[in-house]
Amino acid sequence: xxxxxxxxxxxxxxxxxxxxxxxxxxxxxxxxxxxxxxxxxxxxxxxxxxxxxxxxxxxxxxxxxxxxxxxxxxxxxxxxxxxxxxxxxxxxxxxxxxxxxxxxxxxxxxx
Amino acid sequence: xxxxxxxxxxxxxxxxxxxxxxxxxxxxxxxxxxxxxxxxxxxxxxxxxxxxxxxxxxxxxxxxxxxxxxxxxxxxxxxxxxxxxxxxxxxxxxxxxxxxxxxxxxxxxx
Lengths: 111, 110
Description:
The complex is a heterodimer of chains A (111) and B (110).
Chain A: E1 4-6, E2 11-14, E3 19-25, E4 32-38, E5 44-50, E6 55-57, E7 60-65, E8 70-75, E9 84-91, E10 99-101, E11 105-110
Parallel strand pairs in A: 2-11
Antiparallel strand pairs in A: 1-3, 3-8, 4-5, 4-9, 6-7, 7-8, 9-10, 9-11
Chain B: E1 4-7, E2 10-13, E3 19-25, E4 31-37, E5 43-50, E6 53-57, E7 64-70, E8 73-78, E9 87-95, E10 98-101, E11 105-109
Parallel strand pairs in B: 2-11
Antiparallel strand pairs in B: 1-3, 3-8, 4-5, 4-9, 5-6, 7-8, 9-10, 9-11
């Protein structure tokens, strides 16, 4: 079983759609949680940290369910520029030092 | 303005050769990393250094040897390259809970 599991997609959605990605993690000792974004043939970049109470950053909302070991990302009003691979990432420490990456979910937003 | 830089960007070499990848960060961070992203796109940590000291070494063959001459640099030397070493190698540095990645080095072993 992979430590961090994601549906690889691709998710093909029209501009303006709302899309949600889910992720599960196996290590119950995980302490910090993130979504990174990786464009094709580029490096990953932090999209947002995920907090226990849930958090929002503009059109992006992240949720964490520690009991179910489940993380989600909701993107509202999708833009063409949101097309990328979204990586679910967990760390066993609070500092995000030891990152474990999921395989990513590919999103393609169409005009 | 480059934050984390790596050289070379592309590296094509024959099996059995020895090669090095260099990484530099100008962000003043204390902690740096090497990651490997294989053909299936899984990104896995290989090493982490904090202030030139090795703190994470994840079951990587000893053909891979990181070296940190100072806290702004973390280089990766690979001996006796194998076909399975073909991948994209990313360097990163960390500030609080965010890691900043370099642009990657695409290594192809023929």
